[in-house]
Each structure stands twice: as C-alpha cells, then as structure tokens.
Design brief:
- By secondary structure, the protein is mostly beta strands.
- The chain is 0% helix and 55% strand.
- The chain is built from no helices and eight strands.
- It has a five-stranded antiparallel β-sheet, with no helix packed on it. Strands 1-5-4 form a three-stranded antiparallel β-sheet, with no helix packed on it.
- It comes from Diversispora eburnea.
- This is 5508_t:CDS:1.
Amino acid sequence: MTILMLLPSTTTGITLRESLHNYNVPQLSSGNTSCFLMSWVGQYSLSRNGTEVCAFKNQKQQSIEGADELSYSVIQR
C-alpha cells in the first residue's frame, strides 16, 4: 500500500523524512498541488520549518500522531 499526502502547491517549509533509512522524501508537484508518496512499511516524520508536526509509525499497521493544532483527515478506500 502507498499513502499519498497532498498539500497546496503554495505550502513551503514542509519536509517528510523517512526515519528508518534517514533520508528526505522528494516532494512531487502537479498543478495546484504537491505531494509526498509514503510506503506503509516505512516510518516518517513530517516537519514544518524544522519542527516535527506529525509522525507516521509502522507497527504492523500505520499509526498517525500529530500535534494538537494540526488538522488532518484519513480517507480509506
């Protein structure tokens, strides 16, 4: 399974880091949006201007932790 995280293309200062292998995930742009692609087996941390705001941890299922002021939604299909 691949998870797609969509952001408005005007969003700046966002970094997604794959924690297990210690690399930054490239941000892909298309029209008015940009996105990050994540694998369900990885562990990721999402940072804005160098401050971690969200963590995606693999524990045989995907677990999402976020800061109190972060708003997000999960779409399942």
